[in-house]
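Side project, low priority. Logging it here so it doesn't get lost.
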Amino acid sequence: MKIPFLDLKVFWNENQSKLLEAIKEVGSSGSYLNGSWTELFESDFASLCESEYCISVHSGLDALRISLLALGIGKGDKVLVSSNTYIATFLAIKDVGAIPIPIDSSLNSLNIDMVKLVEAIDDAVKAVITVNMYGNPIDLRSLHKMLKDRGIFLIQDQAQSHGACVDGENVCLHSDISTFSFYPGKNLGALADGGAIVTNSKSIAGHCRMIANYGQSQKYYHDLYGCNSRLGELQSAILQIKLKFDFEKSMMARKHQARKYFTVLNNRHLDVPDKTNFSNSVFHLFPVLIENGLRDQFIEHLASEGIETIVHYPIPPHKQKCFLDFVAPFPLTVTEDICSRIVSLPVGPHLSSDHIDFICESVNRFKVGP
């Protein structure tokens, strides 16, 4: 049995007629940027996020960078950030001239340690970026209120957590800005790069839209130092079809598969995520932590049985070569432990119940030695 980690062709194959019709409509319209498909998708995605405004952009990195600029974050400003994240979160902070201050993780949630985050807040901190890693959202209700009282902005990097809720309430409601990636492999992915900024603030939304459109207040009048960051009609149409016909089904499949993993996986060399702490996850990924020194053997064992896995992510941003001159002001031992042991198991709508059963059996068969 061959079980790929991801198979993006499933969405295309199941929705080909709708997608080809939309592509034909966009092509024949002669309107390829900022048209009706983009307007419709932004409206519907804002509704999904229970938010007033959505600004679509070229990528998740652009969404983070533009958000920081719109909030006035710049040279020398301190930004507290999850240390267990993809490098784009750090790059956006560095791109605007601010200083990333990484905060260590919780081994229970694999997200930012909220106690350590609060302890690190001082008068020099201008913003906080949390990351809902693997699709697992953080409950930010009390943190957002506390930061707001201190004049500190809260950004959620939701590149992996489209549609996530806590206690039935969309997590976008408890930050100043939420940013998204529509990279093809995401739960809501386009057929190319894409991203979005979501907010309930009219002024923040206006600033973001201006920055993304060359800083223009009106055509050829550039009030802000901006950039060119647009999603485009074609990707908007594809995302709209996915949102309408595929997204909810995909979400339910991921949650069903995760429940099976929680129930059946029992290998003594493996730490499965805490089910309670992952109860609100949308399972963009299903991470497990393998015993120290056994990751390569574990991956090779699964590969020998046709199961593809991926390591998200082997090296945390503060240890990457591009940040060799960076010295973290706080210990990041938990994040480094996570990165040294993590393995992502396959999850997604391309998998059948038989696939998940086989993966569970294979994981549980893994052993060390004869």
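Brief comment: Residues 247-264 form the longest helix (18 residues).
Revisit when time allows.
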